[in-house]
Amino acid sequence: xxxxxxxxxxxxxxxxxxxxxxxxxxxxxxxxxxxxxxxxxxxxxxxxxxxxxxxxxxxxxxxxxxxxxxxxxxxxxxxxxxxxxxxxxxxxxxxxxxxxxxxxxxxxxxxxxxxxxxxxxxxxxxxxxxxxxxxxxxxxxxxxxxxxxxxxxxxxxxxxxxxxxxxxxxxxxxxxxxxxxxxxxxxxxxxxxxxxxxxxxxxxxxxxxxxxxxxxxxxxxxxxxxxxxxxxxxxxxxxxxxxxxxxxxxxxxxxxx
Length: 257
Known about the structure:
By secondary structure, the chain is an all-alpha fold. Helix content is about 55%, strand content about 0%. It has nine helices and no strands. It has helices at about 15-25, 65-75, 85-105, 110-130, 150-160, 165-170, 170-190, 190-215, 220-235. The longest helix has 24 residues, at about 190-215. The protein is globular.
């Protein structure tokens, strides 16, 4: 049976607003820590704005945190409504990856997940600056530090992407994708109590993305979206991570009818 998230959800609890704000705004306010060698050492600070370490918003940050804060600032122009939906989507996705990397760094985590997040954001930013974002993969496989959990939400995400949903909700789709990856990693590293908030956040973003899509399309198109979600779910459900084991996942595709 499909999980309830395939239906249009109606969460109204204020906690979702708080959790969303953490994902959106965890930029220069992160606690300063010393990054471990396995964490975010590959960020090339020279490639980005040169943040003055004495600037109030940066002075308590490590060199790598300042680099990521500068990357966040450089992403903002690509998130504006005068940009294409795909530029906005990738810019928001990079922002979400940086929020994740900074969270891992603030926890002094030695997990490779933070490093991968920072590298993913750096790749996206460089593509945006070079005007080559069209070469980035739209439906990416799940990294080795995460897993396919909540196949119902992944099915909704992939179906929306396949159906042009990014045009309707670039930010929501980007944030939901990173939240799903983040949640599964937390599930593997720390167990369900810590991952639950991220899964709920992903559900909330997808609810908003689907609502935006439905409002912008006719009933026939919306029925087609629902059918695609179901077919993606049938592909993804057997791949759901066993015993909360994170080893990545190649996402199979589904042909649109």
